[in-house]
Amino acid sequence: MKISLATTLSFLILALASNSLLVLGTSSVPEPLLDVHGNKVESTLQYYIVSAIWGAGGGGVSLHGGRNGYCPLDVIQLPSDMQNGIELTLSPYNNSTIVRESTDLNLRFSVLLSGRDYCNEQPLWKVDNYDAASGKWFITTGGLDGHPGAETLLNWFKLEKIGNFPGIYKIVHCPSVCESCVKLCHNVGRSFEDGVRRLVLVRDDEPAFPVVFIPATERSTSV
Ligand SMILES: *[C@@H]1O[C@H](CO)[C@@H](O)[C@H](O)[C@H]1NC(C)=O
Ligand SMILES: *[C@@H]1O[C@H](CO)[C@@H](O)[C@H](O)[C@H]1NC(C)=O
C-alpha cells in the first residue's frame, strides 16, 4: 500500500515535471529584438548598431582597413558618440522578417564598396581566423550570405539582452546553424589596436560591447 502510494506520487511528480517542461518548450520562441524606439527590428530595414553607453562609450560600428593590408575590412567602433557609423541589415538564418534574440543572424553593412574603399568582398561580418600574434579573434568582413551550416559557421552572430534593460543587447558569436560542429562561443567586445577600436571575441571575464539599434530610416507610421 505504502509502496503503491509512493509509486503513484512519483508518477504524479514525473507527469507534473514533464508537463512544465512542455510548457517551457512551447513558450521558448525568443523575444523580438527592439530598436531604440521600442519597435520590432525587421530584416527588411536598415539600422545603425551604436554603443548603448553615451559619451565615453563611443559611437556606432563601421568599417576600417584590415590589420594585414587594407582588405578585408575589419569591423570597428567609431570613437565619438556623434558618429552612428554605417547602417546594416540583420538577416535571420531562416529568412524570417522579424528579427529575434538568441537567433543566428547575418550582419551586413549596406554599402557599395567602391573607389579607395573597394575590397572584393561582401561587407558581411565574420569571425576572422585566429590571430596568433595578438591572441585574438577579430571581426572582419567577407562572409557569405545565408547558407546556414558548417561552411558558414564563422558568419553568424546573435543578439542577447543584457540584464533586464529593454532594447540593450550584446553581440554574441555562438552559432547554432551546425549541431555537429565544434564551434566558438563568445561575446563580442572591443580591442584597441593602433588607436582603433576593433571588434573581437572576448573572454567571459572581459566586457561585452553593449549596443542599441537605431533605425536608419524612420518609418512613416512611427509614433
Ligand atoms: C532562405 O532564402 C534562401 C535564398 O532565397 C533560400 O535558398 C533558403 O532555402 C531559405 N531558407 C529557409 C529556411 O527558408
Ligand atoms: C524562423 O524561426 C522562428 C523561430 O526562431 C519562427 O518563429 C519563424 O516563424 C521562422 N520563420 C520562417 C520564415 O521560417
Automatic annotation (TrEMBL):
Keyword set includes Signal: yes
Listed GO MF terms: endopeptidase inhibitor activity
Endpoints of the signal sequence: 1-25
SMART domains linked: STI
Gene3D superfamilies to which the protein is assigned, alphabetical: 2.80.10.50
Keyword Transcription: no
Record keywords: Protease inhibitor, Signal
InterPro entries per the UniProt record, alphabetical: Kunitz_inhibitor_STI-like_sf, Prot_inh_Kunz-lg
Pfam family, one: Kunitz_legume
Family: Belongs to the protease inhibitor I3 (leguminous Kunitz-type inhibitor) family.
Protein's UniProt name: Miraculin
Species in which this protein is naturally found: Capsicum baccatum
